[in-house]
Amino acid sequence: MNSNNPPRQVHGSHYYPLSKILVAWLVALGLASGHHGFYASLNSHVVESDDSTSPSLLLHSQSGASAVGTSFAFLVSAALSVSAGTAFLQCAWKLVRQRAFTVSGLDALWSSPHNVLAFFSFDFWRSARGIVLISALAWAFPLVVTFAPGTLTVQSRSAAVPGACKVPMFDFASSALLHDEQTSASKPYFRPSSVALEVVGSTLLAGQPARPTSPCGSNCSYILSANAPSFLCSPGLHNSSSLNWTVLNPRFTPPPYYAANIDVTPSVNELEFVDWDFEAQFTDFASWKPDPSGGTNLTCVAYNSTYHLNYTFIGSTASVAIKDITLHQPASQLTNATADSDGRFLPNSTTHTAWYNATANYYGVFYSMYPYLVGNITVFQSSNTVNFDYTPESGLSLTETTLFNAAASSLGSGNLTWSSNLPRAMESLMENITLSILTGSLDATQKTSTTCIFNDNLPHFAYNARRLWLVYGLGLGAALLCDIVGIVALFQNSFGATGGFSDFLAATRNSELNGLDLKQPQRIKLKYGSVRSEGGRYAFARPESLYDGNPEKAAPFSDRQKDSGTPDTDEPFLPERLYGHGR
Prior knowledge:
The chain is of the alpha+beta class. It is built from 13 helices and 16 strands. 33% of the residues lie in helices and 23% in strands. The strands form 4 sheets. Strands 2, 5, 6, 7, 10, 11, 12, 13 and 14 form a 9-stranded antiparallel β-sheet that branches. Strand 3 (179-181) and strand 4 (189-192) form a beta hairpin. Helix 8 crosses helix 10 (422-437). The longest helix has 37 residues, at 62-98. Residues 542-583 are annotated as: Disordered. Keywords: Membrane, Transmembrane, Transmembrane helix.
């Protein structure tokens, strides 16, 4: 045997653990990228039902996406553990070569990656402080499974899809529903219809328009434009002589209220349709005395207008917003409807044009409202009582409308307060009436085509890529730090440790360990190195049993082989033969 050759290491080549460290880390990076790609493909997509049978749809369900995401996270965690665990072994073998450990310290060192109780070993902390951090980081990798899947959540989002639909409306020009007629060719208009009286009265007294019915489901919206009557109101009186309240009780002047119909612009249809417009005087009273600052004068002109409306239906809630009102001509200037194409009057004709229907319906609407508004409120005083007096008593219902400020009034005490913005309040009265008519409830046959926006609150996947890469970045970074330390230790060891049973078999198979009393592991110190009694073979032994210098100085082992009856060979028996090249 050539005793000048040093004994070979009991461990394998360093290439296998090196490739294991690097490949496992790269696999973790690839799996993390795959996880990101999978979640990115789901982002903003509708969550499919868990009852889906198609594999593609199942992956787009919440349970399917959660299962796949958790699997990715588990595999990434496993790959990081393999990479860092292999690096940990290289550091562990480096430490046991550098210093002696108690048996209990060795127990804690090798079990620390999978036994948390190892961190309670004093010998472990005292002898292997540096490797404690690497082992602790290995325990953190399973947290990836906890946090990474949570970066994909489910949020309810409103999806807007346009589509053609038919919506209710009311065309004032194609119906005679809002007025009654008489058999007279020269003057067919008779009075407002019962339908007009009903819709106007209910709207005024309710203080809001009738609720529209959705034609497109529970979550939709659409825009509608329709010609309808409106008011344009402004402070001041156009014809002050029409409000002749000076004949009233002079002790209570001006009166609380006085209103009349007028034509701001002379009507072009004086035979049938006159007094379209409205003016009024409003005065606040306190303790039966008029406001000394005077009242508010108001003139409202009736107009033919185009309403631009936005209907929105969300669940059981319906709303109508007036985007704009385009004023055309005053209602008093609407063209005579019973005429030919040249505008000439056709005597004895019962055929009405669209203009006639519109004019008569407008007039019927205004004159369904005016009985609630036109008249006066005065203060009546007898010998022992004072009260407000309404004329005409049967029709005037101002205190039931939004013109009246009920919260600031106490009629029994002589306190009467009107709205702070009377022009706008008057305009809104007419707008609410128009909105009630346009709901389509008066004539279900009238519909128009428009574009509806169908909104549905569907569950969508929401992916936070920054959070996912924060979780994986911390894991990959911690593993890379462990790997760098492990690779340095690997090349310093000049061998590669795998942590397999053969490593420990070769490292502990020597006679120096036969007499150890393992009942007190915290008192027995072992070190990994070249054992004197084993001809310089590397193994665990007491520090005093190891060569202090170069293991190449180890004595020949052939004598002991002969004494033991072992066949003589050209080199000593080493445990690596058990797994390197046979025995």
